[in-house]
Amino acid sequence: MTGEKMWQEYCLLTNMDINTRHDLWKFFNGGIFADELANLIIADTKKATSSTKLSYEINEEELPQRGTYSVILFDNDEAACIIRDTKVSIVPFSKVSAAHAYKEGEDDRGLEKWREVHFRTFALDYKAAGQSFDENCDCVLEEFEVVYR
């Protein structure tokens, strides 16, 4: 099922206005990790995610807010589920907590591994913008709940 079709079904089921803000996206803009992370959400392991604030600025996208809906897509553009942000915060990379790393549900769920993987990933956004990433750069942290699968 496509992301828009899943959104239509959800809106019909919940009597929600179909024009309510919702984003459609894949983790890492696609690839094997997109499917892996979408499956972690479906398995009820992944309850949070993070990105660089810079990526929103570069792409001229509105930052997520509490209550923002997202249709999570698999790499093949099939819809995995719909999530709703329950908490959004902007935090320097160095201040991301072990609790948040655990909620992201990846690898061993530890902060050290989270920092290692996300430093490499986030540095790519900064490199593309001709900037250097360091531990003071802002991250957008989202906590969410699955509202439809």
Write the layout of secondary structure elements.
Layout: H1 3-14, E1 22-25, H2 32-42, E2 48-52, H3 53-58, E3 69-73, E4 79-92, H4 98-104, H5 111-128, E5 138-148
Parallel strand pairs: 1-3
Antiparallel strand pairs: 2-5, 3-4, 4-5
Helix pairs in contact: 4-5
Task: Give a written overview of the molecule.
The protein has a five-stranded mixed beta sheet with strand order 1-3-4-5-2. β3 and β4 (79-92) form a beta hairpin. The chain has five helices and five strands. Helix content is 36%, strand content 26%. The protein has a single domain (3-148), classed as Sulfate adenylyltransferase, CATH 3.10.400. With 149 residues, the chain is α+β, with helices and mostly antiparallel strands. It is globular and about 45 Å long. It comes from Faecalibacillus intestinalis. Residues 25-148 form the ASCH domain. This is RNA-binding protein. InterPro entries: ASCH_domain (IPR007374), DUF984 (IPR009326), PUA-like_sf (IPR015947).
Major sheet size, sense and barrel closure: 5 strands, mixed
Which fold does the CATH topology refer to?
Answer: Sulfate adenylyltransferase
Number of helices: 5
Unreliable segments of 5+ consecutive residues:
none
Shape: globular
The run of helices and strands is HEHEHEEHHE
What integer is the average pLDDT? 97
Radius of gyration: 15 Å
State the domain count.
1
Q: Can you identify the CATH class?
A: Alpha Beta
Please give the number of β-strands: 5
Tell me the strand order in the biggest sheet.
Answer: 1-3-4-5-2
Share in β-strands: 25-35%
CATH superfamily: Sulfate adenylyltransferase
Helix content: 25-40%
Which architecture per CATH? Roll
Distance between the termini: 11 Å
